[in-house]
DNA helicase RecQ (Erythrobacter neustonensis), 515 residues
Amino acid sequence: PATLPPACHDILRRTFGYPAFRGQQEAVIGRVMAGQHTLALMPTGAGKSLCYQIPALARPGTAIVISPLIALMHDQIRSATAAGIRAASMTSADSDNAATAAAFRAGELDLLYVAPERASTPGFQSLLERAQVSLFAIDEAHCVSEWGHDFRPDYRMLRPVLDRFPAVPRLALTATADRTTRADILRQLGIPDEGLIVAGFDRPNIRYAINPRDNGTRQITELVQRMDGAGIVYAPSRKQAEDLAAAITRSGREAGFYHAGLEPERRARVQAEFVASESMVMVATIAFGMGIDKPDVRFVVHAGLPKSIEAYYQETGRAGRDGDPSEAHMFWGASDFARARQWLGEVEPERLPAENARLNALAALVEAPTCRRAILLRHFGEHPAPRCGNCDNCLEPPDVLDASELARKLLSAVYRTGQSFGIGHVEKVLTGQSDERIESRGHDKLSVFGIVGSGEAALLRPLTRTLVARGMLSATEHGGLMLGPEARAVLKGEAAVAIAEPPVRQRRQRRTRGG
Ligand code: ADP
Ligand code: ZN
């Protein structure tokens, strides 16, 4: 990576008071200083803001920061101003937009925050032409991708604006993007492939545990009893947040609740109470946690299935920012998946493949008998060790079944049918159920037709999820399956595949019914 101009180190020390850069900050800032378009993928807490704040101070002109949330912008401006940086925003919530525009034109701002819908207006574009822009920072850049978990059409309007200033470096930032989303962000924002900088996603001090739910309230109150320190419990609804908080309080632990239905003053009060407390349990909907700065959260509990692996990673990532040992627990029910699948029936058709892939990845995570951390990190494109030693499955390996032979059959069937069909079709081929489509393609003539007996048929879907989770199968954009980079080792008999014993699965499903 390019060496940073000395001014950047001076700014780090003098303005921010930090002795050294962390992780990939230096690499990101180096590219921006050299005028190169960049996508920085860094986990929450890694210090993304500094990556554009330092170039904003070191380069002539004003940095335009595009950010989707007014509340987050105002937080950022408050802390930037406290550090002596000249920062302002132009939003519907600001009354002094004309004065801000004048200050921008006069070169009196280091940072100017705007929402994407304003950034793409003709008025703002002509303002940009009359001022000097040092860089474009596009925060929460996954919003530009339909593959991301938070697609915002306004982000799609940014490209023409950026293209009018080809010499101004673009810095896209996000904490959450799987491989597909990443590639899409690069393409949508016109950033070259070599502009992607990924910081390590591992949070080694967080211990992950995922369990099926039977009596969620009892499981959670018991768990919380054993935990020291402050923690967050994410509940799927406002009502459940209130009920769980009451149950935890009854069990003798200090608890509060937080959701978007509370009066703003009350929300601010419970949030401040939680930040100050060393023992409070905050039961909340996912509205809670964004932008709160509490490094000593000792545990995060999910009372139901999170929305995606990205959301799970981000929400559990609020534990242990101080680096001390922390725990992340999830209780999921088959009913959570049923509800999510039902909801899939309502999404627009073009979003369906992405939503399906998201749900399958979650299923793979919760059902896997193997290391949770390895699954998470692989999801984010890393190549972790197969076992971390600090998750439930590493610490107490579940009963597993060697499904290597079945995996070979499944992978062969995916390969021989042309790597474009979904599991439904492949399952029929393997179990020898013919239909029109199978006959018309000649798949009933393949050597893999009917090679899986009825006893093993029920293992095919959980096995598929495991294979996807381990990179042995990949889901195509159209919902088909193709061999993944790790398939070769299985086909050559060099890698074993284990899945949880079926009796365990059945018991789990029976226990979770209605949960
Ligand atoms: P992100 O946006 O990636 O979640 P932030 O930009 O909010 O992270 O930074 C997280 C915290 O880390 C902030 O308190 C920030 O001041 C601090 N921080 C950032 N860079 C450094 C550094 N080089 N050294 C020490 N602390 C840092
Ligand atoms: Zn592990």
Q: What stands out?
A: The pocket of adenosine-5'-diphosphate (ligand 1) is lined by residues 18, 21-22, 25, 42, 44-50 (CB under 6 Å). Residues 208 and 391 are 5 Å apart (CA to CA).
